[in-house]
Amino acid sequence: MSGKRKMFIYGGIVGLIGAVLMKLGNPGNMGICIACFWRDIAGALGLHRAEVVQYIRPEIIGIIFGSFIISYITGDFKVKGGSSPLIRFVLGFFLMIGALVFLGCPLRMILRLANGDLNALVGLVGYVAGIFIGVQFLKKGYTLGKSIDQPKIAGFIYPIIAVILLIFLVVRPAFILFSSEGPGSMAAPIAIALVLGAVVGIALQRSRICTAGGFRDLILIKDSYFLWGLIGIFVFALAGNLILNFDKFHLGFIEQPVAHTNHLWNFLGMVLVGLCSVLLGGCPIRQTILASEGDTDAGVTVLGLIAGAAFAHNFGLASSAKGVTANGKFAVIIGILFVLIIAYGVIVDTRKSNSKSKKEVKING
């Protein structure tokens, strides 16, 4: 089987599971959404008080378990980090802001489109635009530096967190919050969601599918290898929805679940997501997989996502079906400008460092 065909199949597994999870009770057009699910977990832990989006999503737990176990078995589990962690935290923070203004991560964007939500098409254009901008920085030498070996125990932090979250989900102690209405109250059965999440984690770990990477490589080196994974997600999710969720399939812009029709902010929110994803070296789903493989830099990025989710709901930045808030619009603009400044500053310092290194080599030579 060719590499592109394998990517298509791996992506298809993820897309089909997204359709199945929606059929089993997850919110509309939200079979899997990494940004939304981390946001729900943040709410369940009391980091924000938006009562309609508080739930410990077993899919996230399953994804961590699946990717950790398969990476450990195959030798891909390598504990590294130390590559500009604070910048990664900030980029993860603003990535989440953009995602919650759009109302979904890049994976949910594809799943929304596969169920007829054309607002996701506007988001897709914005996402690709943000990736294109990020690629220009890559061409100019943007890099967050090399990772180095870290203490092995650091690589087990996310699997341990997943175990603790699973205990909280099953035991439901009083200090963990669960939505009684809204998207947070809509969920597939825990055991099935956990298993299907693990399958998604395995598929994504083995394929290394990244929504940002697919478009980045096409723009940067004209390579469509990872893009076939994204096509697989869309095709299988579309087929799954037409078979399993036909009564919920609705082609158009209006009356889409957990979505709004403000095209400008759907576009700009995903510009911010695309830009941050390229500068981080991976989208939210890729960062979650990498964190489960022992990448502590990705782990810091996920913490940034969680902090961004808490901030967005505590300060009225997140959108809703009613539309985009004034605070959300302001935050997206600030986010884009701030991230551009970070990227420019990294390039300037990288060039200075490279120039200094060349001079030292010349003197020593």
Pattern of helices and strands? HHHEHHHEHHHHHHHH
Which structural class best describes the helix and strand composition?
mainly alpha
Number of domains: 1
For the largest beta sheet, what order do the strands appear in spatially? 1-2
Distance N terminus to C terminus? 51 Å
**Number of helices, where a helix is a run of at least 4 consecutive DSSP H or I residues:** 14
Question: What does this molecule look like?
Answer:
It comes from Tissierella pigra. Keywords: Membrane, Transmembrane, Transmembrane helix. This is YedE-related selenium metabolism membrane protein. The chain is mainly α and 365 residues long. It has one domain (3-364). Helix content is 67%, strand content 1%. The protein is built from 14 helices and two strands. The chain has helices at residues 3-23, 34-44, 58-74, 85-102, 106-113, 119-139, 157-171, 190-207, 211-221, 227-244, 263-280, 284-292, 296-314, 326-364; strands at 80-81, 148-149. It has a two-stranded antiparallel ribbon with strand order 1-2. The protein is globular. It starts with a helix and ends with a helix. The mean pLDDT is 96.
Topology:
Elements: H1 3-23, H2 34-44, H3 58-74, E1 80-81, H4 85-102, H5 106-113, H6 119-139, E2 148-149, H7 157-171, H8 190-207, H9 211-221, H10 227-244, H11 263-280, H12 284-292, H13 296-314, H14 326-364
Antiparallel strand pairs: 1-2
Helix pairs in contact: 1-8, 1-10, 2-13, 3-7, 3-8, 3-12, 4-11, 4-13, 4-14, 5-6, 6-9, 6-11, 9-10, 11-14, 12-13
Keywords: Membrane, Transmembrane, Transmembrane helix
Organism: Tissierella pigra
Transmembrane segments: 7-25, 55-74, 86-111, 117-135, 156-178, 184-204, 225-244, 264-285, 297-318, 330-348
